[in-house]
Specification:
Layout lengths: L6 E4 L4 H12 L5 E2 L11 H11 L3 E4 L7 H6 L1 H21 L4 E5 L28 H21 L3 E6 L1 E3 L12 H16 L3 H10 L11 H10 L2 E2 L6 E5 L5 E2 L1 E3 H14 L2 H8 L16 E3 L5 E2 H12 L5 E4 L8 E2 L4 H5 L8 H13 L6
Parallel strand pairs: 1-2, 1-3, 3-4, 4-5, 5-11, 6-10, 8-13, 9-14
Antiparallel strand pairs: 7-8, 9-12
GO molecular function, one term: NADP+ binding
InterPro entries: Epimerase_deHydtase, GDP_fucose/colitose_synth, NAD(P)-bd_dom_sf
GO biological process, one term: 'de novo' GDP-L-fucose biosynthetic process
């Protein structure tokens, strides 16, 4: 990508899109294209077609998606598969029709089977049943991956899919019903500490910014305590406690969204579809490639941590004195999900991450957030 290339970041206000946009700006790219959902509804074919026709992007990062945690994935199953398929179909097809030079599509590591061998390799895709709770979302992402792959094979496009591990960072979603595990843990622990220290001004400020089930900072104290209790935040005595879903036994890998963005820009600048095919496809005795399968790229840190240890790390970072309780009546999800990133390393990018340091930085931003994009 040149500094004056027309680059479209779809989903520029989300966790992934905002990180990619920041990296592009830091590196001096001057012709960045983006539009929020009020200006451009990517579920509308007509609006998507008009946007591409008018702006003529050369490079596209497809970071727009409906995302959420275990609860929202389980209860909004139809919305997750329908909305993600609509956006993907519209954007990927318009990239082809309007001659986009390269598309990068971040999917999700939840596309891999529930009981995958660890660490998970790209070739493990579709080798077993998916985790039930996020199956519709995973199916949509697999469809997007295969759509990119098929446009490459049929039309010679350069559409690359990457599989990020669990992400966190600036502009994360902290909705306790819809967020992923790390931001949900961070917010619950923060709210519990505010309750523990009788910091009602800080607690009300948090709820004003992110109301929970219609309860804001302006609500009566009794309503606030009631809604916090529903989400496992209590103060039974001098110290507060939080109750978390499951057993804490599953292991997860976590990556800062800015590190993902750095990897995505590396791939966009230095890797194309044919590089991946030549380097990683199986060949016959004559050296010919007859089938192209799984030409996507895992992006992660190669390290994981138990949810139990993560919760206690966050407790230390936030400064909560109270206890963490576990409710095993709720599902754990996949027992382990760590990505094999050897393909990514061979393509020239290696992560450098410190989980505790990164969480401290994100919590500092959460506690005193900067203005949104």
């Amino acid at each position: 990508m040149k500094k004056d290339s027309r680059i479209y970041v779809a989903g520029h206000k989300g966790l992934v899109g905002s990180a990619i946009l920041r990296k592009l700006k830091e590196r001096g790219h001057s012709r960045l294209l983006f539009a929020d959902s009020k200006e451009l509804d990517l579920m509308s074919f007509e609006q998507t077609e008009r946007f591409f026709r008018q702006t003529r992007p050369e490079y596209v990062f497809l970071a727009a998606a409906k995302v959420g945690g275990i609860l929202s994935n389980h209860t909004e199953r139809a919305d997750f598969i329908y909305e993600n398929l609509q956006v993907q179909n519209n954007v990927i097809s318009r990239c082809h029709v309007h001659g986009v030079k390269k598309l990068l599509f971040p999917a999700s590591s939840c596309v891999y089977p529930k009981d995958c061998p660890q660490p998970i390799r790209e070739d493990d895709l579709m080798t077993g049943p998916l985790e039930y709770t996020n199956e519709p979302y995973a199916v949509a992402k697999i469809a997007g991956l295969k759509m990119c792959e098929s446009y490459n094979l049929q039309y010679g496009a350069d559409f690359i899919t990457v599989m990020p591990t669990n992400l966190f960072g600036i502009h994360d979603t902290y909705d306790l019903e819809k967020s992923h595990v790390l931001p949900a843990l961070l917010r619950k622990t923060h709210l519990a500490r505010c309750l523990e220290e009788d910091r009602w001004e800080a607690l009300r400020a948090d709820l004003d910014k992110r109301p929970i089930k219609g309860v804001s900072g302006k609500s009566p104290r009794a309503d606030i305590l009631s809604v916090l209790e529903k989400f496992g935040v209590r103060r039974p005595g001098k110290a507060a406690s939080i109750t978390l879903w499951g057993t804490g036994k599953p292991f997860r890998e976590f990556m800062l969204s800015d590190d993902l963005a750095d990897a995505c820009l590396h791939i966009m600048n230095h890797v194309d579809f044919h590089d991946i095919v030549r380097a990683f496809s199986r060949t016959d005795a004559s050296g010919d490639i007859h089938e192209v399968k799984n030409p996507h790229i895992n992006i992660g840190t190669g390290k994981d941590i138990s949810i139990f240890d993560l919760a206690h790390m966050i407790k230390k970072i936030v400064g909560l004195r109270g206890e963490i309780r576990w409710d095993p009546s709720y599902p754990d999800g996949m027992p382990r999900k760590r990505l094999d990133i050897s393909r990514l390393k061979k393509l020239g990018w290696t992560p450098s991450t410190n989980l505790e340091k990164d969480i401290r930085a994100v919590y500092g931003h959460y506690a005193s957030p900067a203005p949104a994009l």
